[in-house]
Design goal:
7-stranded mixed sheet; FAD/NAD(P)-binding domain; 26% strand; single chain; 13 helices
Length: 454
């Protein structure tokens, strides 16, 4: 697979596709009026004209505000849309137990009275060949495949769109489902988020999920960014790998994965990123200590739970200052399991679905998820004070820094800058802004959570 390139909305710079998950920045785009999935149909845009957009100037200079409406003529915006010819019925269902999401925790939550709806059924385990301390990967995969076969009639591929007065709305390939359930299990998992550093938008900077599922067999020498077990697990999938974690951040590696990294001669470096250069397919990362070359930069800091789903349903959440993730809070009616709570260890995800969790195992093999008393000195996403934060609205760290002089929370940053108002509706950038500002709250995640074609 070739990595698609897109012209950014405001500044018209060329950025590379980083994600694979539906609903995230630029995975889908409009080209000549048609909705195109850039994973399935790679496109390559280039730009000669660049616009020096700046939020500070917009707020402080009246002349800039007056000419802003005319700048839309030069921005990368769809000129037209082709009308959809599809129509879908809305079916209403009542179920005893509804599972939103798949993966290890979702599939092991299934029983004869439940219904599972997810866009992904197995998840990362299908592609991730790194070892799991407590169980053989192939053995676990066989068990998951067995449960898929056993409960085939109770698994539906679809997207959760949001909570409405009449129930929870899902979209499948051929219909909408409006569901009411006595009990709900959230097993929607988490996602890795692009960290902040100079030129972090260049083609060749990709998520763990995109790397594992589409690029792993093509790129042999990778640079992995992160500070957790998930970082080492990503690196173990490559022939050669170097790990970089930011200065001032305490790495959360367990002894098992540190030993695995040592066995494979994976170098682990602490450093800030001063610059990134791309030349003939080679990525060169210049840190404050040394220069590191690779075929690809893969960000794999930690799995951020998909809080937008839990928040939309009505669950509260808290900011975990050890991992800089937002963790949901369970209720009597809603149980959050697996990656939705922050687990990256597949065995612990399985255990969480059963309602039993060994805290000793959790502290050893998923540090920070259960024992989150410690605090990081700085955001583990911050490799420098420069870089793109919001891909959809084309906002940089300088724009966010300016906004923090005026407001001190993510909702305020959204109002000042437009962060979180683009295609992905804050599924990436709001978490970055929250981590940078140590905010206990994010933006409001309203229905619908994903685009609906009408």
């Amino acid at each position: 697979m070739e990595i698609s390139t897109i012209i950014s909305k405001r500044r018209r710079r060329v950025i590379g596709l980083s994600y694979i998950e539906y609903g995230l920045p630029h995975v889908e785009t409009i080209i000549d009026g048609k909705r195109v999935n850039l994973i399935d149909e790679p496109h390559f845009q280039s730009s000669i004209l660049k616009i020096p957009f700046n939020i500070r100037l917009f707020h402080r200079n009246s002349v800039v505000r007056k000419i802003t409406p005319f700048l839309s003529r030069f921005q990368n915006l769809p000129a037209h849309y082709e009308k959809s010819t599809k129509s879908k019925s809305i079916d209403k269902l009542n179920v005893k137990k509804l599972i939103i999401g798949g993966g290890t925790s979702g599939l092991f939550s299934l029983d004869k009275e439940s219904l599972l709806i997810s866009r992904e059924i197995i998840g990362d385990l299908e592609y991730d060949e790194s070892p799991i301390p407590q169980v053989e990967r192939e053995e676990l995969l066989k068990k998951l495949e067995g449960r898929i076969k056993e409960f085939e009639g109770r698994i539906i591929k679809g997207n959760f769109l949001g909570k409405f007065d009449d129930g929870l709305l899902f979209e499948t390939e051929d219909r909408f489902l409006l569901i009411n359930a006595n009990n709900i299990v959230i097993a929607s998992g988490g996602r890795t988020i692009r960290p902040i550093f100079s030129k972090n938008y260049l083609p060749g900077v990709v998520s763990r999920e995109l790397y594992l599922s589409k690029l792993k067999n093509k790129y042999n020498n990778i640079i992995v960014l992160g500070f957790s077990n998930l970082t080492i697990r990503t690196a173990l999938n490559a022939k050669n790998a170097t790990i970089i974690y930011p200065k001032g951040v305490k790495p959360m590696f367990s002894s098992f994965y540190k030993e695995k990294a040592k066995e494979k001669s994976i170098t682990i470096i602490e450093g800030n990123i001063l610059d990134v250069k791309k030349n003939k397919g080679e990525m060169k990362v210049i840190t404050d200590k040394e220069e590191i070359s690779g075929d690809l930069i893969v960000f794999s800091s930690v799995k951020q739970p998909k809080i937008e789903i839990m928040s939309n349903i009505g669950l509260g959440y808290k900011f975990n200052k050890a991992l800089h993730i937002y963790q949901p809070q369970n209720t009597n009616e809603v149980n959050v399991v697996g990656g939705s709570y922050g687990f990256s260890n597949d065995f612990l995800s399985l255990m969480s679905s059963s309602g039993y969790l060994d805290l000793t195992l959790c502290k050893e093999f998923d540090p920070g998820v259960c024992d989150n008393d410690m605090e990081q000195e700085r955001s583990p996403y911050l490799y420098s004070e420069d870089g793109m934060v919001c891909e959809c609205e084309d906002l940089d760290m300088k724009d966010i820094s300016f906004s923090t002089y005026l407001v001190n929370n993510v909702e305020g940053i959204k109002r000042v800058t437009g962060l979180g108002t683009g295609h992905c509706q804050g599924k990436v950038c709001s978490f970055l802004a929250g981590s940078i500002t140590n905010s206990n709250s994010l933006i409001s995640f309203r229905s619908t959570l994903y685009p609906v074609i009408i």
